[in-house]
């Protein structure tokens, strides 16, 4: 990217202001975790409260003076706000405290820039960064203004700021084209899976809930996993085998966070499409986290934003190894369907229950009945054995073969159609035999 990040120290003063609106409130602890994830060294925390932010400085005059004192005291070279600041507020605060200022969106973008590993992920992060920086260019280029006026400075020509904006627009246009190509390739793969009727199971959840650790446990993959926010940015797909279902695709995706910047949601829409078009979502939850209820709600907000609110969800309560006396189990609703699984991705306890629950949720259309076959229908019997669908078989008094089969209904219908056998006959027959 042609914007050079200023070389600055990692000592940072964190700022959190409480405005009394619980629905919009950020978490001070989460800001500290974000700062540590970005590589900063938080040296102090300025906390205050106001009825509403100041249009010019965001802070009141007293807190602004207190912030200046803390910056000078610690020799900090960075101030991180736990809020979204306007470009004007950033410039005004920097001018007053003589220190670089970063808001919550800029901090998350910086973490994303560090973590992106694939070509697509890097393009998406750069696009979001350029979009964020486009309103903040003026502060870095005022000394290069070529139309200030005065002797030797008059005349036609483009200002450095205008030149930079033009270059920025050209770069964003180029990234959009390259991302569109990646999206088309991803869509082709997704359509191929849909034609083959291979279900997709997508891991979603709040950042640092343990999705990648669970993904590695379920697939024996080696996806980067760490105890930090946004360890995973790039989607990873692996094939798994599920009982009664067959092959399925498991997708690991980027973690969500409270008030995920809209720029990132837009930039990562191609990645999040794996979630919005999944057959089943595994909502991974850190059951040891005191704020898990709020995190669950935030994940639901993001799922609504990307159009995935109506996809079936199976909750996965992870990290039971951190709870005393908590054992792996499946919680079921009044109809007996699994809706929550308790497990530990680190120790592997309960992962077998998760496979069982996922298989049950995906095999709602499972055909498990007894077919009555005549001796002349050996071809159908052979195909059922070839698919591994026969549970047991016995011969009745009339010499007919009573074959108990267990397979997806769509697979049975395809088999009957391929052999030219009327499907209604066997489905009705199975119903009458088990009635």
TrEMBL record:
Domain Hflx-type G: 199-366
SUPFAM superfamilies (UniProt xref): P-loop containing nucleoside triphosphate hydrolases
Keyword annotations from UniProtKB, A to Z: Cytoplasm, GTP-binding, Magnesium, Metal-binding, Nucleotide-binding
Entry cofactors: Mg(2+)
Function comment: GTPase that associates with the 50S ribosomal subunit and may have a role during protein synthesis or ribosome biogenesis.
Subunit structure: Monomer. Associates with the 50S ribosomal subunit.
Protein known as: GTPase HflX
Organism classification: Bacteria, Pseudomonadati, Pseudomonadota, Gammaproteobacteria, Oceanospirillales
Recorded name of the encoding gene: hflX
């Amino acid at each position: 990217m042609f914007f050079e990040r200023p070389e600055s120290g990692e000592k940072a003063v964190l700022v959190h202001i409480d405005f009394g609106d619980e629905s919009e409130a950020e978490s001070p602890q989460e800001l500290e975790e974000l700062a540590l994830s970005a590589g900063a060294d938080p040296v102090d925390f300025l906390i205050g409260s106001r009825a509403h932010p100041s249009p010019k400085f965001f802070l009141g005059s007293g807190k602004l003076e207190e912030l200046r004192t803390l910056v000078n005291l610690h020799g900090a070279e960075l101030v991180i706000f736990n809020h979204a600041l306007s470009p004007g507020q950033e410039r005004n605060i920097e001018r007053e405290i003589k220190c670089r200022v970063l808001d919550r969106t800029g901090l998350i973008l910086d973490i994303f820039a560090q973590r992106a590993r694939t070509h697509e992920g890097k393009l998406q992060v750069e696009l979001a960064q350029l979009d964020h920086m486009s309103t903040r260019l003026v502060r870095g280029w005022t000394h290069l203004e070529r139309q200030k006026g005065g002797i030797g400075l008059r005349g036609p020509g483009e200002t450095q700021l205008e030149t930079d904006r033009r270059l920025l627009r050209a770069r964003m246009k180029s990234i959009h084209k390259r991302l569109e190509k990646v999206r088309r390739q991803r869509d082709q793969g997704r359509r191929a899976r849909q034609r083959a009727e291979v279900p997709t199971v997508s891991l979603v959840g709040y950042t640092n809930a343990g999705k990648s650790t669970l993904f590695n446990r379920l697939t024996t993959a080696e996806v980067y996993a760490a105890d930090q926010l946004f360890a995973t940015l790039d989607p990873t797909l692996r094939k798994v085998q599920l009982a009664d279902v067959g092959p399925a695709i498991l997708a690991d995706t980027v973690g969500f966070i409270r008030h995920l910047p809209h720029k990132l949601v837009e930039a990562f829409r191609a990645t999040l499409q794996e979630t919005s078009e999944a057959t089943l979502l595994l909502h991974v939850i850190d059951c040891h986290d005191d704020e898990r209820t709020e995190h669950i709600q935030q994940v639901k907000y993001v799922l609504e934003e990307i159009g995935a609110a109506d996809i079936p969800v199976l909750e996965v309560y992870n990290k039971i190894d951190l709870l005393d006396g908590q054992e792996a189990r499946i919680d079921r609703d009044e109809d007996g369907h699994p809706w929550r699984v308790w497990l530990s991705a680190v120790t592997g306890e309960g992962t077998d229950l998760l496979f069982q629950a996922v298989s049950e949720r995906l095999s709602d259309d499972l055909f498990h009945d007894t077919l009555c076959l005549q001796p002349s229908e050996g071809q159908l019997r052979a195909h059922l054995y070839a698919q591994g669908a026969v549970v047991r078989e016995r011969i009745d008094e009339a010499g007919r073969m009573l074959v108990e089969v267990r397979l997806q209904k769509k697979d049975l219908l395809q088999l009957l159609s391929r052999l030219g056998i009327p499907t209604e006959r066997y489905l009705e027959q199975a119903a009458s035999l088990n009635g």
